[in-house]
Amino acid sequence: MDVITAVQQRRAAKTFDPHHQMSAETKRTLLEHASLAPSAYNIQHWRVVDVQDPQLRAAIREQAWGQAQVTDASALFVLCADLEAWQEDPQRYWATSPQPVQDFLLPKLDEYYRGKPEIARDEAMRTLGIFGMTLMLLAQDLGYDSCPMDGFDFDAVAKLIHLPENHAIGYMIAVGKGTENAWERNRVDIQSLIKTDHF
């Protein structure tokens, strides 16, 4: 599938076939390719919780207003961000880069993030957004439907997945075989949303 077709066909599926099982190979392909998404300073802030335990899925569903996608989709990924990834063995992010590049970026990375938790969080969330969109388009290419989800109690789900203190949940993505046609797409005319040079 070409990218334009994947973008056109991707919709937020609300119902999934609860009996369909995604193969381990397909899941690995999905996640490995999603990890090629760009990230600030190549930090790869994403930490993905692949929720497989049916009881845990049911508990998360209770914290997500009973939304069936949580339990019925073939896969449920909780996309989390490591807010301190920038200082965790940072040289590994450019291990294959020329030495002058490494010598330049390492001090800049520290300068950019140290003592600036808001910037660290903003960058991590932007990265999660790019990662998630990449994952959903890949899912579409692989013949799956998806649904990004932020309608849940973030604190409760954080406890359920034992989220480390220096991490934050961005959102969840359910992936599976959709069982109903999506509602007709409604988009505001893009020209009304684009400004030239300034507002």
Biggest sheet strand order reads 1-2-4-3
Tell me the radius of gyration: 19 Å
Q: In which range does the helix fraction lie?
A: 25-40%
Give the distance, in angstroms, between the N- and C-terminal Cα atoms: 37 Å
Number of strand elements: 4
- How much β-strand is present in the residues? 5-15%
Shape: globular
Subunit arrangement of the protein? single chain
Strand count, sense and closure of the main sheet? 4 strands, antiparallel
Give unreliable regions as ranges: none
Q: Name the structural class.
A: alpha+beta
Index terms:
alpha+beta; single chain; four-stranded antiparallel β-sheet; globular
What does this structure look like?
The protein has 199 residues and is α+β, with helices and mostly antiparallel strands. The protein is 39% helix and 14% strand. The chain contains seven helices and four strands. The protein has a four-stranded antiparallel beta sheet with strand order 1-2-4-3. α1 (3-9) packs across α6 and α2 (24-34) packs across α6. The longest helix is centred in the middle third of the chain and has 25 residues, at 117-141. The two termini are 37 Å apart. The mean pLDDT is 94.
Write a brief structural summary.
This protein has 199 residues and is α+β, with helices and mostly antiparallel strands. The chain has helices at 3-9, 24-34, 54-62, 69-72, 99-113, 117-141, 154-160; strands at residues 46-50, 75-82, 145-149, 167-176.
How are the SSEs placed, and which strands pair?
Elements: H1 3-9, H2 24-34, E1 46-50, H3 54-62, H4 69-72, E2 75-82, H5 99-113, H6 117-141, E3 145-149, H7 154-160, E4 167-176
Antiparallel strand pairs: 1-2, 2-4, 3-4
